[in-house]
Structure formats: structure tokens, C-alpha cells
Amino acid sequence: MGELYVINALAIMIFMVILFIVAQIMKDNSIVDIGWGIGFVIIAIVSFLYRDGYEPRQLVMLLLVTIWGLRLAIHLWIRAIGRGEDFRYANFRKAWGKNARMIAFFRVFMMQGLFMILLAYPIMAVNADQTDNSLDVWAWAGMMIWIIGLLFQIIGDYQLKRFKKTRPNKEAVLKSGLWRYTRHPNYFGEATMWWGIFLIVLPIHLGWISVLSALFMNLLLVKVSGVPFLDKRYAGNADYAQYKRETNRFIPWFPKNASNE
């Protein structure tokens, strides 16, 4: 397991350095978001090839991570076409001034690479385990939960994309579909997929440690890189303020009646 961690850490470091160089040429650090999903696909492939012989559980892990990672990367790439650098990274660039390039290398690219390695424990653990890894009830339950998460992410992204094409103005807020029950269905879907991966890995040796990966992903989405940025972006928007009062932040639930609060 230790050797596999080192191999993957080196692979991700090389990938992130290449991504950083491309970002400097393009003057767009936001391409690091596209590299997020691709990095996990790299880890999944490297880990799968590391193992001698393949069991169903390893094949399932490779398939699920590849589908998630490539879908996310393609979605973000299509969304970024013609938009320039994302506002978050543009603000970072301004705030960091003349040291922006060096700070971005460590605080954006290398830190994201570190997060990948920390989160990828279940991917590496299932491939490092040399015992019989036929599919059991945990694996099937995990796959079902993962599919639910994928559907939340795909449908949420599609509904948002369609809304942006028809909204009356840029300040309008999507309040229908899955967005009626959670302010971030796409992020909830991503978190749910990682809980599914946790269940798939749970029966193997030390598989329970994967709960830390699922919790860490939830923390990143809710407290660090996902929800907070959007809440900050729409600060001061009266329509969004009402939407926040009526709609659960993360876990889907029926809307509250804001008029009764």
C-alpha cells in the first residue's frame, strides 16, 4: 500500500506540474478544476495496473471513478469554453499580486494534488488488497448509492445549464427541479458518490478508513471549495437570500415556507 501511494503521489505531482505550465501559458488557473476529475482517473488507472490479477471489485472501482472523473472534466471543459478565467481564480490572481504565479503553484495546484492523494485512499486500498474481492451486498449497495449520486449530479448540472440559457437576467435564481429541494444538487450528488465508494470498499482489510475520504469530500464541498464560493458570489442578491431561507443548503428536503419564519 505504501509503495502504491508513492507511485500515485509521483504521478499526480507530474500531472499537476504539467497542468500548472499549461495554465500559465493560457493565463487561466481555473483549468485546475478540469484536472480534478482527470487526476482521480489517473490514480484509478495506475492503481488498477499495480495489482496482480483483477477481481470484480477492482473493475467496478476503475469503472466508477473513470465515469465520474471524465464526466466532470468534460462538463467543466465545455462550460469553460469562451468564458476566460473563473472569477474565483481571477480574484486570487489580483489579491496575490506579483507573487500570484508562485502562490498559485503551491496553494492551488500542489494543494489540489495533495487533496487527490488523501481522498483516493479507497481507490488504492481496493487495488492493494490481494484477497478475494468478488461483489457482495456492500458492493451492490455502494453501486446503487453511487448511481443515485451520479443522477443528482447529471440532472442538477443539466437543469442549471438549461436555466442559464433562458433566465431573464444574470441575477435570476434557479428554484425548480432538484434545485427546489437543495441549493447544490450537483455537489450533493458528488458527495453521495463518494459515500457509495466507501461502501464498496468497506468489507476489505482496513476498508473502514475510507470513511475519512467520504467525510473529507463532504467537508471540501460544504465548507471549502463548493458551497461557500457560490454563497459569496450571490451575497446581496435579495432573490438568492429568500432562496437560502426556503431551501436546504445541501441535503435535499422539502422547501420551507419562508413567510412563516
UniProtKB/TrEMBL annotation:
GO terms for cellular component: membrane. The chain crosses the membrane at residues 6-23, 30-50, 62-82, 103-125, 137-155, 193-221. It comes from the Bacteria. The keyword Protein transport does not apply. Keywords: Membrane, Transmembrane, Transmembrane helix. This is DUF1295 domain-containing protein. It comes from Cohnella herbarum.
